Structures are given as C-alpha cells and as structure tokens.
Amino acid sequence: MGKAMNEFHEGKLSLRQISRSWNIPKSTLQRRLTGKVKHSGQASGRPTALSQSNRTDLAEYLKDLSRRGFPLCPLDVRSLAYRFSVKNSCGGIGSEKAMMAGRFWLNGL
C-alpha cells in the first residue's frame, strides 16, 4: 500500500492505473491518499485485546513450551492466554467466570 501511495505522489500514473497495477481497489487507495484512513494497517474492526508485543511474547512462550516437549491443547492455550492478559493488564480477552480466553479469540489467531 505504501509503495502504491508513493507511486501516486511521484505523479507518473493516474490513481486508476496505480490501483490496477497494484491490484488495490481504487476507493481504498483514494481513502488512504485523502487521509480518511490514517494508518496503513487494517482499518476495520475492533482493536485487538493484546498489543503486538504481548502477542509476540505469548506466541514465543507457546513455541518454547512446544519445543521443550510440552505442547498445549486449545483449552490450555486459552487458559494461559487469559492468565497472561490478566498479568499484563490487558482486558477483554476472556471470561472471568471460566478464567480462559474465548474460543473465537483462539480461532482469530
């Protein structure tokens, strides 16, 4: 997306030509160029419960457990993710009653 925007600012091609060459919808590219969408990441949906660094830390911990011979089943991963979010003060990742992250959270990984 950034390269397509740079190409437009150089003024070599029209917006329609750039959208075709980069296979980006013209309206999407136009919204980015006019500033209606500020960042280059995904613009729709709710913000994630865990920050990128927290997700990376959790993923590395799960991979380390698996490498050491302790792979976790989905229920264990959900429980661990909930405890991780509570410890790191990240709310909205699961149920206090069940003390685990939701199944849709796990499917969204």
What attributes does this structure have?
about 110 residues; mainly alpha; two-stranded antiparallel sheet
How would you sum up this structure, described in words?
The structure is a single chain. By secondary structure, this protein is mainly α. It folds into 2 domains: 2-34; 52-107, no CATH class. It is 56% helix and 4% strand. The chain is built from 6 helices and 2 strands. The chain has helices spanning 2-10, 15-22, 26-34, 52-67, 74-87, 103-107; strands at residues 94-95, 100-101. The longest helix is centred in the middle third of the chain and has 16 residues, at 52-67. It is elongated and about 55 Å long. The two termini are 23 Å apart.
Backbone CA Rg = 20 Å
Residue share in β-strands: under 5%
Mean pLDDT: 84
Strand order, largest beta sheet: 1-2
Estimated structural class: mainly alpha
Which sheet architecture does the biggest sheet show?
2 strands, antiparallel
Oligomer: single chain
Q: Which runs of at least 5 residues are low in confidence (pLDDT < 50)?
A: none
Q: How would the blueprint of this fold be written?
A:
Elements: H1 2-10, H2 15-22, H3 26-34, H4 52-67, H5 74-87, E1 94-95, E2 100-101, H6 103-107
Antiparallel strand pairs: 1-2
